[in-house]
Amino acid sequence: MTTYLTIDAGIAFKLITPHPNQQVYIDLIAKWRQAGYQLCAPTLWVYEVTSIFTKMARFGQLSMKASHEGVHLANQLGVQLIAPDEAQRIKAMYWTEKLQRAAAYDSFYLAVAETLGCELWTTDKKLVNAVGQPWVRLAEM
After folding, report:
1. Which fold has domain 3-45+79-138?
2. Where are the domains of the chain?
3. Which of 3, 130, 6 is nearest to 79 (CA)?
4. Cα–Cα dist 105/92, whole Å
């Protein structure tokens, strides 16, 4: 039986992009892999990861080459992408309404984790605080 762990795009960005706490994310991914977790995310993850890296390049915080390399490395993480189905859409709508959000992006991550009965790890402290569930975990160190 596969044990899943949902990650958001921020985790991939913090793992790949050099910063003072990068090693914390490298260690976290290594710990998850050693424990046998299958990383997963909604298909939206691909778009968000790509957008994060292209935005950083656009605003001069990364070179375009580094941006392309970042997206390539993110794709090598082996994150299993979960396509939304009707049940996912319903759960995402529920979370969007419950959290009083205008957009459902974060809600699809919540829907995947809830459906698979696993934790969602994110770098979004506001999301963690808004959801207030023990299975939504903050990875920001």
Report:
1. Rossmann fold (3.40.50)
2. 3-45+79-138
3. 6
4. 8
